[in-house]
Structure formats: structure tokens, C-alpha cells
Write the C-alpha cells for this entry.
Amino acid sequence: MVINLNSQCSTQFPINPIILGKIGSAYGIQGKVKVFSSTENLQNIFKYQPWFIYKNNKWSKIEIENWVHHHNNFLIKIKGINDRNAVTHFTNCEIIIDSNQLPILENGCYYWKDLIGCKVLNLKGYNMGTVISLIDIGSHDIFIIKSNDEDFFGIQERLIPFIDGQVVKKIDLITGIIKLDWEPDF
């Protein structure tokens, strides 16, 4: 069942939205649709309910009737939708939840969303820039840091490995500062 939330209280949609995946194209004629998960363990996307989509300036809540693993993705059946034409409305919509649905992490673990926007300093106090994204290369994550306009070395973007203890020396989410053992000209 898809519920239009715009006419309801504003607390019915995510206050702190976070994207967990994307809805793909319709599959078959019975209203199933492909889902692409962005969660670390792909199947964990189903632990976070309800899902929301934002389309045409409107929030909608999606209830999942069932899901199955299909190749490298998933197929879902949205409650109340039983035909291919109705489900095409959701194609290319991002799957959104409220970030307060995420579990509290143990000390020393971080959600990428919390690191984005943090200022990055090296151990000598040089302002390396601001984290704009992260990527997962398998063995570790990589910070993508947008340098300041006044960067002495003329670097616009830095890619620095997220290696705790070796490169990453301190993360303070309260002040929004990450300290790295990294030379700014590297």
C-alpha cells in the first residue's frame, strides 16, 4: 500500500532522510519491481521499514508485501499494487528512511553520512578541505575531500584512505573535525 503523506502531519515523513537504495524498473506483470540496495550488506535494506519515496514534491510511504533475492538485486512486491502499470510510477525513485532508524554504532564506527561535511586537518594543522563523499574499495574506504579555494598546493580534490590508527588519527563528530596523518602535497 502506498500512502500519500503530504496531507498528514509533517512527522509522518523522514525528518533526517537518508537514501538506502533505488527502485528500478517493473518486473513481470504482477506488480513486482527491482530494488538496488546501497547498504553494506545488501539484504539489510529490508531491516529498515517503512520506506519513503519523494516524487513530484510529495512524500509517499511504501509498505512491502514481500521480497526475493534476484541475481545481484532484489524484487519486491509493494502492498496494494498488483499490476505492472501501477508500479512504473516508482521507477528510479530513491528509497529513503529516517536516519534515526539506523542502529547506534559502537565506539569507533561511523556512518558515512556523519563524516560528510567534516573539516579535515593534518597533524600539523593544515586544512586539507571538507569530506564530500566516501567510496568503498574493498580493503578500506576512501575519503573524497574537496580542498579549499586557497589550497597552497592547488589541489582541488584529495583522495585519502580511511585507515583507522594509521592515517585517521581522530574523528570528532561534535566539532566536525577529522585529523589525519597525511601530507597535504601528496
